[in-house]
Amino acid sequence: MMDVLQRISDELDKWKRVGMTAAMWWRDDDAAEPCVDLDRLIRLSDEHAVPCGLATIPTRSGEPLGKVVSRAQYIWIIQHGYAHKNHAPSGAGAWELGLHRPKSAVLDDLRKGMLTLSRLFNDRFVPVVVPPWNKMDSELIPSLSDMGFLGVSASYKRHRSTSPAGIRVADAHCDVLSWKKKQAVFSGVEHCVTDIVEHLKDKRTGSVDSDEPTCVLTHHLEMDEAAWDFMEKLLSVTSAHCALQWVSPADIWNCNQTNTRQAV
Fold first, then answer.
1. Total structural domains in the chain?
2. Domain CATH for 72
3. Residue 155, CA distances (Å) to 29, 52, 170, 224 in order
4. Which of 2, 128, 129, 172 shows its CA 20 to 30 Å from the CA of 27?
5. Average pLDDT value for the chain
6. Beta pairing class for 125-129 and 174-175
7. Which domain holds residue 45?
């Protein structure tokens, strides 16, 4: 594995030679309740001093998770939809944030979710929407800023529409899991490293937005030992490199909690 991970170090060496620093961030989806897998994620984050943005489901979260997060130095909360519930008809795929119901109802759910997470997590909450199943109808996005949201994070597409003013997009570029028939397995070292290196190279050469941090996506509830082992080694290799900085959701979205609460 370390031989393959060396490709990331080699790419970061190129950043160093041109006097640039690469930014990466860690997103983990489907947080709701304290559990042994979340404890493992927090220990990994603490060990390497790497922040993690927990995409948290508002209707499934409560005070127990709030207490765990308040004691975790590097954990931030972002909003994973509202209830992680599919509202699309059969055959249309899974959508919570689609227009299969009135737009006002979808936005109202997001507003209620923001209030819930703001109350539970206070300044650890960064008002960013992570759509369940990484899908969100584009008609919803222009309304987000007025509601107090600062951004969106879904799955990365090299060619995407320009986001409206006030909304910053920071997508996931490497999913460490591969989903087949609702069964999650590790995507493989080669696959993950390729995704990371390609985005880093594209940023360095100016092919894509150089300000968008490269994101590694995990799902603590679904990860097998191979996925955990990869994350351990990835954080070890990258956190020691002088040309890379792991950033938090608060860093990415320049979070101003006072303004957010006023908007809500």
1. 1
2. 3.20.20.370
3. 12, 17, 9, 21
4. 2
5. 94
6. unpaired
7. 2-263
